[in-house]
Amino acid sequence: MLRSEQKPFEEILGYLEGENKVFILGCGGCAQSSKTGGLPQVLEIKERLEQSGRTVTGYSVIDFLCQKALVGSRLRPLEAKVMEADSLLVLTCGVGVQSAAAMVRKPVHPGCNTISLGGSRGEWQGSERCLECGDCLLHYTGGICPLTACSKGLMNGACGGASKGKCEVSPEKPCGWELIYERLKSVEKLDQLKKFIPPKAWNKMRPRPEMLSTSLWALEQRD
Amino acid sequence: MALKNALESDKFTITAEIGPLKGTDTSEILEVAELLKGKVDGVNVTDQQSAVMRLGSLATCVLLVKKGLDPIFQMTCRDRNRIALQSDLLNAHVLGIKNVLAITGDFPTLGDHIEAMDVYDLDSVQLVWTIKRMNDGYDLAGNQLHGNTNLFIGAVVTPTTDTEVALELQLIKMEKKINAGARFFQTQAVYDVDAFAKFMKRAEKFAFPVLAGIIPLKSVGMARYMNKNVAGVFVPENLIDEMAKAKDKTVKGLEIAARLINELKDLCQGVHIMAIGWEKKVPVIIEAAGLENMA
């Protein structure tokens, strides 16, 4: 279980600057339980985006957006609508945003922040990892998390230690920032690399008291 | 001349580097300081270099200030959170240090305390930005300082890379560091002058001084080791051959260093000599490069 909360709508609108058409992705797994990316939230965001003058080319709520294979197979019938959009707005945890970015050659914007539950959740993850930092940066980094893809968790670019594209700390791993560069290049968003990311609010990574001793079951039973 | 004045006067600037040892014996530092006096414009003091625990950069910088040198306080993001980093910036100012060099820092697993927690609360760009803020009189929380810092902010860049993407990333990060407040750059060691020229052609537009890194070669083994293990360092085969054929490796290593300085002289604003154990030979390199009495 990953718990998320929606980003302020103004922040999402900021991400969409210069873009008119957007495709919305939700998730029928954790994001639905978190009430941040289930069908009702996707429809609500769709309406608000349309009110703000955006065209929503389509939307889809996929059960477990963290599963890349599933993302691919579910989006194939909707390919025309997805590719018509300038970008994807993804209402899920950080893993779902990264899965979507890995499967679709479009800029992705995170619609949620993943907040800390303070420990492992038992899910079987692929290479897309989310630290539950509570302030998602995936908009700036082509849908590849710099906190998990870069061994040093650097937010403003490569350390310069990579050798032939491999990480200095873990030579078996690719340099996370080289991956981010290639991804942003493939979606023609290299300008994002010049944006300064200010010091991070690491306190958001601590679980809030009400998030301790919770389970998916407890969250579903609440209110 | 002090580093800032040297760089602002467009003079070809020379900086050297001291790596404190593990322990409290400072005799060698003081000896090197004496030898470097009047020969260089600034002396970097490394901060737990290679993630190996040693005497600190701040204390060593103070020893250099007392000796009449202009130290460059190297600060990595590896070991301190933003509270400790900011406090050490205040400490540095109060103790008479004028220059700071902000760097990311090697990961603990590369050093001698592999079990240590890595911090990286800030990254190097954010650290540059933090120093600028403190120079402007504010801390990261937005509180006003009772007396601001007045530190000359430096940063590093790796000019020679093994992939085009890595070079692009370096240039982008260099620009970010300038926008955050960096006013001079020191580079990783340069051996390939053509590759450095290519980098400078792209970096010229930033119009901030770049000091090219010089590490004198001590042996063929050292050159091969760096090629294999040190990111961003590429010693061309012809230099390795030259070392292999030389009877006196020390003389040859110093000669190559002096020659590189001369070849780099027209490409950038100065050099940063990282002697790594050969600090006492730095005056010889400077003399051989024909730069004596310029400091």
* Total domain modules of chain A: 2
Spatial extent as radius of gyration of chain B = 18 Å
Coarse morphology of chain B: globular
| Secondary-structure element series of chain B | HEHEHEHEHEHEHEHHHEH
| SSE ordering of chain A | EHEHHEHHEHEEHHH
Question: Which key features would you list for this structure?
Answer:
heterodimer; A: 223 residues; alpha/beta; Rossmann fold; 2 domains; four-stranded parallel sheet; two-stranded antiparallel sheet; globular; B: 295 residues; TIM Barrel; eight-stranded parallel beta barrel; 11 helices
TL;DR of this structure?
The complex is a heterodimer of chains A (223) and B (295). Chain A has 223 residues and is of the alpha/beta class. Chain A is built from 9 helices and 6 strands; from the N terminus they run βαβααβααβαββααα.
Can you put this structure into words, describing what you see?
- The complex is a heterodimer of chains A (223) and B (295).
- With 223 residues, chain A is α/β, with parallel strands linked by helices.
- Chain A contains nine helices and six strands, in the order βαβααβααβαββααα.
- Chain A has helices at 9-15, 30-33, 39-51, 68-75, 79-84, 94-103, 146-149, 176-186, 216-221; strands at 3-6, 21-27, 55-62, 87-90, 108-110, 112-115.
- A four-stranded parallel β-sheet of chain A has the order 3-2-4-5, with helices on both faces. In chain A, strands 1-6 form a two-stranded antiparallel ribbon.
- The mean pLDDT of chain B is 95.
- Chain B is 41% helix and 14% strand.
- Chain B is built from eleven helices and eight strands.
- In chain B, helix 3 links the parallel strand 2 and strand 3.
- Chain B has a single domain (3-288), classed as Alpha-Beta Barrel (TIM Barrel), CATH 3.20.20.220.
- Chain B is globular.
- Chain B has 295 residues and is an alpha/beta fold.
- Chain B has helices at residues 3-8, 27-36, 57-66, 82-94, 124-135, 164-180, 193-203, 220-229, 237-245, 249-264, 282-288, and strands at residues 13-18, 42-45, 71-76, 99-103, 152-157, 184-189, 210-214, 270-273.
- The A-B interface holds A 151-165, 168-169, 175, 177-178, 181-182, 193-194, 196-199, 202 and B 82, 104, 106-107, 109-110, 118, 120-126, 129-130, 140, 156-158, 161-163, 165-166, 168-170, 172-173, 175-176, 179-180, 188, 231-232.
